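Lab notebook page, bench 4
Experiment: in silico fold of construct C2
Operator: M.H.
Input chain length: 252 residues
Purpose: comparison with the prior construct
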Amino acid sequence: MILAGTLFNVLTVIVGSLVGLTLRFILSRSPKRELVDTKPVGERVSDAVMKAVGLCTLMIGISGLFSYSVADGQISNGINALVVILSMAVGTVIGELINIQKWLDRFGNWIQGKFKRADGKTSIAEGFVAASLLFCVGAMTVVGSLESGLSGNHQTLYTKSILDLISSTIFSMSMGVGVLLSAVFVLVYQGSITLAASALAPILTEATVAHMTCVGSLLIIGLGLNLLGITKLKVANFLPAIFLPMLFCLFF
């Protein structure tokens, strides 16, 4: 089945998220220990995990960027710095005009209203955006989806799925239900590439995928800074930038 790799990936994200949410619920029920800390044990653990996830997110983004080096306006591996800059600039303008963050927040607040209490300090929209980026930015996503669509080889997506199983468990413990909802984005994004593989293969060249990964790494760094409480970037409004290298790589 052409979507076998994507569907397996979606399943692992759902399972991992449910496990993480279960652990999150157990921790939230932990009793207070007044002599040690006025905060419940679960809240202290959740805060600590959030900071740890923020550091890991920064590491993922920085490692994605450090795989390239900039010199004379060129990024190694054939990546043009101008493409990255234009993608970020134009993509941000598009995102701000649409105000993607506002619509995601509204959707998240609507979902939030279905629960009896707030889902921790991280909004559902933040969890959704963070998890969607982490699960879908990178060469494995694009290359694996193309392989599934062109040759029926799902091995790359199966490998990615195991990694996402672990990541979704950890991230849902700190970010909540938004991580579970990111399974929908994984299905739409990877499924679209797989189904349109024949048409997209000439566009999604190795250079284009590398540019998309580079731009995505910048967004992941922004997520990490937000999770650590250093910045309050509207990362969702940067999302269009990830797709623009497919256009700009045709001209530069």
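Observations: The longest strand covers residues 37-40. The first helix runs from residue 4 to 28.
Next step: discuss at group meeting.
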